[in-house]
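Module 6 notes. Inverse folding takes a fixed backbone as the condition and produces residue identities as the prediction. Think of it as a translation problem where the source language is geometry and the target language is the twenty amino acids. Below is one complete input and output pair. Work through it position by position during the lab.
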């Protein structure tokens, strides 16, 4: 639905809520709702015993992940969480702040989670598409929201490194990834390079894999890690 004041704005439904998006901002995808469901499941188990459970939504875009988590945690009384959302793009942060309405979320312009002192959970849908398939991608989202590097894992690797520094206790990192998409491009060699680099970095940074969750197209999409 477009408003008269800004024709580039529209409302999208995500999880159980509505979000404003506009040109130059990544439009939420249905598979990201799975990530929110997983995060809520872990929050339900882990936040109860904490005075304040800190959740960081890195690469927030229009804010859909962090805001959905904060709203649902409140609706279902899952615990007391403090939510921080980051992006490198000011326009995204301005819009996500608007989408949050009265939800108390701290929005921060920073590279992934840098500058944040600690967290109990980090959730993220970072840019993860390989630049090697750039010419075969036909979507309207801004390139900074899509491409994760030459192979695709590079921004995620940085997220894993930074997260390992700030996750406290047996903190949880949940993120979307894109190696399995390369199957559909017939790029098996890049897929293997992407997956092995990603998994090496998980181990090297002191994480263990709790789960690998497939999306609606049955491709490996979401990784759930625990900091050891
Ligand atoms: C795939 S979009 C995800 C948006 C939203 N979280 C969602 O799931 O719909 C990736 C977002 O990451 C942001 N971004 C890209 N590089 C970043 C970085 N180094 N640090 C923080 N945010 C970044 C982009 O501006 C974009 O908003």
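Target side of the pair, the amino acids:
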């Amino acid at each position: 639905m477009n408003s008269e004041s800004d024709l580039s704005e529209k409302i999208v439904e995500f999880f159980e809520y509505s979000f404003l998006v506009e040109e130059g901002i990544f439009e939420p995808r249905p598979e990201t709702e799975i990530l929110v469901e997983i995060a809520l499941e872990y929050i339900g188990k882990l936040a109860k015993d904490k005075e304040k459970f800190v959740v960081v939504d890195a690469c927030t875009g229009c804010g859909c992940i962090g805001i959905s988590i904060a709203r649902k945690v409140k609706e279902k009384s899952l615990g007391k969480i403090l939510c921080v959302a980051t992006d490198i793009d000011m326009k995204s942060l301005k819009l996500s702040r608007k989408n949050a309405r009265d939800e108390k979320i701290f929005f921060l312009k920073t590279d992934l989670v840098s500058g944040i002192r600690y967290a109990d959970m980090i959730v993220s849908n970072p840019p993860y598409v390989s630049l090697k398939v750039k010419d075969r991608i036909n979507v309207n989202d801004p390139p900074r929201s899509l491409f994760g590097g030459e192979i695709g894992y590079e921004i995620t690797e940085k997220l894993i490194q930074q997260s390992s520094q700030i996750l406290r206790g047996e903190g949880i990192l949940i993120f979307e990834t894109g190696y399995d998409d390369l199957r559909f491009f017939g790029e098996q060699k890049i897929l293997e390079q992407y997956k092995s680099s990603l998994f090496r970095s998980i181990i090297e940074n002191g994480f263990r894999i709790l789960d690998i969750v497939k999306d609606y197209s049955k491709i490996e999409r979401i990784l759930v890690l625990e900091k050891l």
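Reference fact for the lab report: The helical segments are 32-46, 64-75, 90-100, 143-146, 154-166, 188-204.
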